[in-house]
Amino acid sequence: MVPGLAFLATAVATLFAQATLARYTAGRKPHELAWTVALAMFAVASAALALGASTGWDNGTFRVFYLFGAVLNVPWLALGTVYLLFGLTVGRRVQWFLVFVSGLAAGVLFTAPIDGPLKGNTIPVGSDVFGVFPRVLAATGSGVAAIVIFAGAIYSAVRFARRRSQPGAARMAAANGLIALGTLVLSSGGLVQGVVGHDEAFTLSVAVGISVVYAGFLVASTRPAGSPARATPPDPALSDLAT
């Protein structure tokens, strides 16, 4: 079950990344590039999870899984929210800070000592494998970024709900609600693994979470029949998935 769910998460994240990349190449909007980077990282982390759960974990596989899954992908996903809510100037500053943090995290994760050899198919827990610094990077980066994504999605959903008389407002409110729900499910995965310790529950949260976020993207991207080919939202800061 665990490898199957991990492969499902990899497939969904890959499709999601392809969709956001297509949108970025068409419009050159920086938030869509940030999402593409984040979702590519999510796909790599999910592939590492599938590999470790099916053939057994080793040091390299877990380092890749932890770096792209626990440390980096959520902050890069949150960068898209920052671009939309705070504009290009703030977004670019945060982006270059993230580039620095990503390089730092990669150096730390690929050189940090691992407590004992990894073996078997059970997903290792970061607190049992790494020292303090890698775990601080994961907790700080993913925790703060998840709050940004969740708060931004809720804010956008509320704003759209208040403007429900405008065309497409209800659809965008629903899309942002799905994004918030998916982020909550994804964020619960680490807690499930650390407290409950069930690999199936953790991997299920990963697969369901990314699928719900993708559903939000599809809802936001689907225009009603007869609507203009490209609609401009009334407020560019209203939605993480606004065109």
Largest sheet: none
**What portion of residues belong to β-strands?**
under 5%
- Helix/strand order, N-terminal first: HHHHHHH
Provide the gyration radius in Å. Answer: 18 Å
Shape verdict: globular
Provide an overview of this structure.
- The structure is a single chain.
- Residues 228-243 have low confidence and may be disordered.
- This protein has helices at 2-27, 30-55, 59-111, 126-129, 132-162, 169-196, 199-221.
- It has one domain (2-221): Rhopdopsin 7-helix transmembrane proteins (Up-down Bundle).
- With 243 residues, it is an all-alpha fold.
Distinctive features:
single chain, 243 residues, mainly alpha, Rhopdopsin 7-helix transmembrane proteins, 0% strand
SSE topology:
Layout: H1 2-27, H2 30-55, H3 59-111, H4 126-129, H5 132-162, H6 169-196, H7 199-221
Helix pairs in contact: 1-2, 1-7, 2-3, 3-5, 5-6, 6-7
Describe what is shown at a glance:
The protein is mainly α and 243 residues long. It is built from seven helices and no strands. The protein is globular, with a radius of gyration of 18 Å.
